[in-house]
Amino acid sequence: MPATSYTAYLRDLKLVIDRIRDRPFDYEHALIKMAICKNGYGYKCRDVLRRGKLSSEYHVGRLSVDDWRTDTGEFGRAEIDEFFLLPEIYAYSDRALQAPKNPLSIAHWDATVAIAEVLVQERGAVARHQRMLFAGFTDSIHAEFFLAVDNDLIVHDHNPGTQLFEWKTDGVGDVAPIEIGRSRQALAAGFQAP
To answer: Based on the structure, what is the number of domains in the chain?
Structure first.
């Protein structure tokens, strides 16, 4: 089975996130949690939409420290937004969370690793939820190496998992949201498969 490219999926996810931020009154509620690990640094954002009011918080820090500092959003959001533009994106499957080389417990110098969880309900629509763990690359050479080395840990043919999954509407309230911590250790601990 071929590995599934998530480049187009991620572009569509960015449109959803931007619409939530730009048009909050179109939604009943929304929760956006995103964190990326890039070149030894972590960037985290959390957006909560309730009753038409959107609140956002950002944190940034070195992956080697235990507590990331609060960010105004300018730096962290720019780094996270940059991830959505990478030309090569693949997704990890649930197997990656159980593997000895869990992508959240090791440093990647050739990839940007991102967690994206979005729970949203547009007005008059059914709630939907997605949670994915991505690896993004600036070039095809690093992406091809990743596909060869971690082939058993990535999504093939859009197979959904129980912890990592594309958009779904059934059982939306059955899956507890992840807790994205403010350090690499807390990040990995908050995103473990049972």
So the answer is: 1
Q: Please tell me the pTM assigned to this model.
A: 0.86
Across residues 129-152, what is the average pLDDT? 93
CA distance 104 to 186: 10
Type and span of the H or E element at 47: strand 41-50
**Cβ(115)–Cβ(133) below 8 Å:** yes
Distance of CA 179 to the CA centre of its chain: 12
pLDDT tens, residue by residue, 108-122: 668 999 999 999 999
Considering the domain boundaries, does residue 2 fall inside one?
no
Report pLDDT for 102: 75
Which residue is it, tokens 């918080």? 57
User: Does the residue 89 lie in any domain?
Assistant: yes
The reported pLDDT for the residue numbered 105 is: 65
Residue pair 2/25 in contact (Cβ under 8 Å)? The answer is no
153 within domain boundaries: yes
DSSP state of 65: S
Residue 126 inside a domain? The answer is yes
